[in-house]
Amino acid sequence: MSMHQRPFLIGVAGGTCSGKTTLSEKLAVLAGGEHLALIKLDSYYNAAHDKPLHEREKINYDHPDAFDWDLLNDHLAALAAGATVPVPVYDFTNHDRSSEVRIVRPSPIIVMEGILVLWEPRLRDRFDLKVYVDTDADLRLIRRLRRDVAERGRTTDSIIEQYLETVRPSHDQFIEPSKRHADVIFPQGGMNEPAIDMLLARVRERAQP
Q: Beta-strand (E) ranges in 106-178?
């Protein structure tokens, strides 16, 4: 991709386990890796190497302060200019950024997904299309319980405690209000086939040489 061909940036936001990741990953598969680069906000949690595990476990990971917005914006600017970027890899079991990186190359389409991608003003202003995935809170909680037990080694009690203490309050304060910035709101995320078809049509249109 030459320097003057700025990529088409899509922001996909929504509450925890709303289906935004499923939606974004389906788009990436259907569009093809040569046309679409997917970046997840979760990759940009702040590094916490200097904190012991018990302190890292208490961080509010749904609050804007948990993310390295400067690095993320720098990476998107570099991708828009045609550069390759080393995206951090986050270790959810240890609550810290790992030593690994994932190399992301510039593509005609860049999808940025995460709970707060429509909250941060600098990031929001970069998007050509802003999507919010809207899913009922009870369904999101059930999905989070299943995911965190199966994939992140958490206990049911710890998940519920975290949800009540930080996840739900942050959703109400930051994530849900960011919905007003969306160009389009999709219910049910990755299970919404008409929404995926509509987005895929837009992606294919932009991916044409």
A: 109-113, 129-134
In a domain, 170, yes or no: yes
Domain count, the chain: 1
Look at residue 57 and tell me if it is in a domain: yes
pTM for this model (two decimals): 0.89
pLDDT number for residue 1: 46
- CATH number for the domain spanning 125: value is 3.40.50.300
Looking at residue 189, its pLDDT comes to: 66
Q: Is 13 helix (H, G, I), strand (E, B) or coil?
A: strand
* 3-state SS, residue 97: strand
Residues of the chain with pLDDT under 50: 1-4
Closest CA to 86 of 34, 31, 43, 25: 43
Tell the residue number behind the tokens 């199966």, with chain if given.
Answer: 150
Work out the burial of residue 103: count CB atoms within 10 Å of its CB; fewer than 13 is exposed, 13-18 middle, 19 or more buried.
exposed
Q: Which structure tokens are listed for 75?
A: 């990476």
